[in-house]
Amino acid sequence: MDLAAEPSKSIRLTGLGLVIRWALWRGQVPEWLWSLPGLEYVDVSRNSFSGFDGATDVIQRNEIYMLDISSNTFKNPFPLLPKSVIYFSASDNQFSGEIPKVICELDSLGKLILSNNNFSGSIPRCFENFNTKLTVLHLQNNSLSGNFPEESVSVGLVSLDVSHNQLSGELPKSLINCTYLQFLNVEDNMFNDTFPFWLRVLPGLQFLVLRSHEFHGPIFSPEGSLSFPKLRIFDISKNLFTGVYTPDNKQQRFIGVSFSNYSKSVVLTNTGSKMELLGISFNIYKTIDVSENRFEGEIPKSISLLKELIVLNMSSNAFVGHIPPYLSNMTNLQSLDLSRNRLSGKIPLELEKLAFLAWMNFSYNMLEGPIPQGTQIQSQNSSSFVHNLGLCGAPLQKTCSGEEEETRKEDQEEEENYQVLSGIVAATAYVPGVFCGLVIGHILISYRQDWFKKIFKCIA
């Protein structure tokens, strides 16, 4: 449909703004649109517009504060914008070439979203002109290359996304001055650097995604702990990190802050496949992904303190030792991937307590013994347990020997008896005669279980 031919059927005036969204209009945005009186914001997103009718400065002559032309088919030339604009989104179009330096003349610009285009070249150094005003800079999914200039970082940034480009070198250390930064995504570039410990001084950082680079070395610093007190998403997968991974206990706080409605997203690996989190999802999602690195040693005990964690991916490393039973303390966990490590021993029965655990993967380790029979574990596909030569029982086709099955039953009985013991000791402590209760509790725990069963029968 041509907007110029049927203007009355396609325009919705809202206060001082104009919205022409989801109307599937094509062709040129008509020149007369910009002459509407009192126009302060224009949204022509999600159509098939390809250009602007009129002179090159047709938009620039107006005092517009917000302009959204995203999700169209706009191509060069890039529109000239009025200096009054504070919000500009041109994402999901077909703009190409270098990012126009004329953007740097927009003194009031607070949010700039140019993602999902074909921009190339380097990030303009003149972005330093924005100083403290620019709070959102999203340049993801373009073909930007070269180093990320230190001076291009606005100290007022709250959200920075340059993911899926071809940027190289080191992360700009001027990010340390961005004290309001909450969202940082540099995924899938070519940065070659050590872990940016200096980012921990940022008090509000909640989302840190360093996935798919050549970051290397340990993520432990003798100068201080890996402490990001408000972190909700921590993704350092597909890098070359080495050494022992030890999350800081302060990460368990996972404090949430609501974001504005500007576009931001991050792709994570969950339940074995990639998923994209958008907008409000960030307020409820909490994840750690350290997969596809070179971490070694045992799974750290401190990770069990992250009780609000929903996704834990530690796959494709060199972790050794047993799967720790204290993972059962992470009661909100929905996805657990420990595959492709060097873990040994049994799958702990305690994991049956994780009522929300919908997906797990223990494949390609050195695990042994019967697979626990809890519903959450038995609902998994057999591929979650393959290439563990010592594992047996459903859902694998390999049956357990009598000795292995007896061991599993004994382990299960011990767990059940421990829960009964704990309950009786607690109950006894509340009846008159607290001292007696403590003595009986000590006897029950200290002596053989068959003797306890006789005592328990008498009490009953």
TrEMBL record:
TM annotation in the entry: 420-445
InterPro entries: Leu-rich_rpt, LRR_dom_sf
Topology with respect to the bilayer: Single-pass type I membrane protein
GO cellular component, one term: plasma membrane
Keyword Membrane: yes
Compartments, record wording: Cell membrane
Keywords: Cell membrane, Glycoprotein, Leucine-rich repeat, Membrane, Receptor, Repeat, Transmembrane, Transmembrane helix
Primary location class: membrane
SUPFAM superfamilies cross-referenced by the UniProt entry: L domain-like (SSF52058)
Gene3D superfamilies cross-referenced by the UniProt entry: Ribonuclease Inhibitor (3.80.10.10)
PANTHER family noted in UniProt: LEUCINE-RICH REPEAT-CONTAINING N-TERMINAL PLANT-TYPE DOMAIN-CONTAINING PROTEIN (PTHR27004:SF374), RECEPTOR-LIKE PROTEIN 12 ISOFORM X1 (PTHR27004)
Similarity section: Belongs to the RLP family.
This protein's name: Leucine-rich repeat-containing N-terminal plant-type domain-containing protein
Native source organism of the sequence: Brassica oleracea var. oleracea
